[in-house]
Design the sequence.
């Protein structure tokens, strides 16, 4: 399991992350950031498999994926 974090102030809404995500985790938001761009948002967080393709393709380095540790005790 993983968690996607998108920096709304850095994102320029290029949609590369949306196109490359194999699980449709990311979508485009309705609001604009301080630069006037409609930024990417996480729409299906439970689908994230942690592949980090979104991180790799983001030209602005606005995305980070954090692995969640599952405690089975």
Sequence:
């Amino acid at each position: 399991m993983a968690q996607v974090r998108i920096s709304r102030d850095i994102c320029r809404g290029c949609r590369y992350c949306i196109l490359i995500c194999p699980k449709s985790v990311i979508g485009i938001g309705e609001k604009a950031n301080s630069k006037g761009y409609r930024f990417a948002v996480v729409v299906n967080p439970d689908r994230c498999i942690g592949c980090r393709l979104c991180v790799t393709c983001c030209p602005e380095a606005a995305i980070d994926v954090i692995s969640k540790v599952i405690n089975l005790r």
User: Anything to note?
Assistant: Strands lie at 2-6, 26-32, 38-42, 63-67.
